[in-house]
Amino acid sequence: MGGVNGTTGGMRGVAGRVPGGANLLALRSHNTALVLDLLRAADADGISRLELAERTGLTPQAVSKITARLRDAGLVAEAGRRASTGGKPRTVLRLVPEAGHAVGVHLDRDELRAVLVDLKGSVVGERCTPLDLGAGAEAVLGEVEGAVAAVLGADAVPGLTGVGVALPGPLDHARGVLHRVTGFPEWDGYPLRAALEGRLGVPVVVDKDTNAAALGLAVGRGGGGGSFAYLHLGTGLGAGLVIGGNVHRGARTGAGEFGHQVIQLDGPPCTCGNRGCIEALCLGAVARGEIDEAARVLGAGAANLVGLLDIDVVLLGGRTVAAAPEVFVRGVGAVLEGAGEGEGVVPVRVAPGGVRGVAEGAAQLLLAPVFGRGDG
């Protein structure tokens, strides 16, 4: 795949385009994250320091110190005053969404999508271009550079925490090293995180597309204690698992290789080298135009997951699902119901976010830890 040269000139200016002000990485701490997360949830209505203390369990003095630092960093501003039950009106504070940003990049097998999101997770810039993931490291990294530059634009972007990159697995999330990406074995062992950090000059986090999307959904759901499976059907098939509100990556960060469970012995060959994988069966049905059959096969795999993990809900995403959402929801739900795992017990829904859900989740690889969600 070529060496990690790391420093082509085009993007060395990324770090330089981050103006002075909020350094989100320097501000990260458990207590600060608790306060920031409540401020984010409060939206524009704001929340008082007393409420922050009551809901975090921190002392009023600790909250005052934290919010003072956040105000100095430009992350928090006053949102007016609110009447109290006794004494003078309380000042309420709000998060300043535009004070911090992250870039999320989704590397699909044939498409690159990049988004720039603010602290609230709102998309404020987007770029989508064709991509050949098999074109080699230099070509692919060059496309990432160009997309990141495009979404950042010419003006300085305040509080840029870094770039999250999501792509098909398997890969080592902790080290940012790719394994034998299904269909693209030439990427095996490639240090993608180090290569991109060298080029971009900002922190980079790498994860599987399904894990990134699942993280984005978990944060968007409020980060509660729920458990769900996100099934992504596009150019491939995979799963992101959220157990107890946290993304489950496994001991070697390899969990969620859902598409390569064998459900038909001696079935059609799969790009992973096995036969009868659910991915091969699903994509084969899609290629033949048999969408109902693809949904039935996906439902069989979903039933296995529900029976094994006792999850709360199945969320469906990816370009293939987006092209026929009702068919897939109905087909997967019917299989779950027939297996005794559905009918109001385990609902099936289309995941919010649409085709850019993975890219938005990739940005959350950087932002979620700032709010105490996810491990980055």
List the defining traits of the structure above.
about 20% strand; 13 helices; globular; disordered N terminus; about 375 residues; 15 strands; alpha/beta
Could you give a quick summary of the protein structure above?
With 376 residues, the protein is of the alpha/beta class. 37% of the residues lie in helices and 21% in strands.
Describe this protein's structure.
A hairpin with a 4-residue loop joins strand 5 and strand 6. The longest helix is centred in the C-terminal third of the chain and has 19 residues, at 291-309. The chain is of the alpha/beta class. Helix 4 (49-56) packs across helix 5 (60-72). The protein has helices at 13-16, 24-27, 30-42, 49-56, 60-72, 137-152, 192-200, 209-220, 278-287, 291-309, 319-323, 325-338, 357-367, and strands at residues 47-48, 76-82, 90-95, 101-107, 111-118, 123-130, 160-167, 171-172, 177-178, 204-208, 228-233, 237-243, 246-247, 313-317, 348-350.
Helix- and strand-based class? alpha/beta
Mean pLDDT across residues: 88
Which word captures the global form? globular
* Discrete helix count: 13
In this structure, how is the largest beta sheet organized? 5 strands, mixed
What is the ordering of alpha helices and beta strands? Answer: HHHEHHEEEEEHEEEHEHEEEHHEHHEH
Task: Please give the share of residues in helix.
Answer: 25-40%
Strand proportion, as a percent range, falls in: 15-25%
Spatial order of the strands forming the largest sheet? 6-5-4-7-10
Q: What is the gyration radius calculated from CA atoms?
A: 22 Å
